[in-house]
Amino acid sequence: MNKTFSEAEDLLNELYDALESKTPSDVDVIVCPSALYLEMAVDFSETGLFSVGAQDVSTYEMGAYTGDISASMLSGMQVEYSLVGHSERRKYHSETDANIAQKTDMLLKNDVTPIVCCGEILDEREKNKHFDVVKKQISDSLFHLEPLDFARIIIAYEPVWAIGTGHTATPEQAQEMHAFIRKTVEEKYGKEIAKKLPILYGGSCNAKNACDLFKQPDIDGGLIGGASLIAQDFVTIVNSF
Prior knowledge:
By secondary structure, the protein is of the alpha/beta class. It has helices at 5-21, 38-45, 71-76, 87-93, 97-109, 122-126, 130-142, 147-150, 171-189, 191-196, 210-214, 231-238; strands spanning 30-31, 51-54, 81-84, 113-118, 154-157, 199-201, 221-222. A seven-stranded parallel beta sheet has the order 1-2-3-4-5-6-7.
């Protein structure tokens, strides 16, 4: 929840200019602004430099749910992606894995790609429960899907304990969890789907640590938070692959 309308427009202009001058051809760039700015972002995305995603979606298809935004509304605006179950939605809005499953279903039904977030808090990691927590989040929110539908999603791992806490996840810790996620998916859906699954890292990834993170074999990209608010920093991350 950052940027006024004019500030968001300035950021998109800066991002457009920076990406136009230097963008790897094999990197997919997705911008997920506040819902108020989705239409503006879609206009910018028509150049093909980046795609657009929403930060959240309703569990409902339509109706008297004031303030909600449906998957069909996103699809109708050419929004191609949506975050689901972000750690802040879980923390501040008490979202459950059941809610996340509903939202994922709605997005897939409307041909919007879900970026489904998972991750443990500090207490869970210190008690060595982090693998169990992440496995439960993934299985409870996604393992109801048929293989063809699961193959359409993206998973983003957020170590909540490494976001704004002063603690830092090392590339090795991030890789360990990404490998575990891929193994968990393989046990359910098989090696081919697990190998092709994009798994993004979302724990304070920035312009300084992106290269080391993206060198890890099971880290396929980043879910960028604060660093995305500065166009040049974001583009530096884009060019870190």
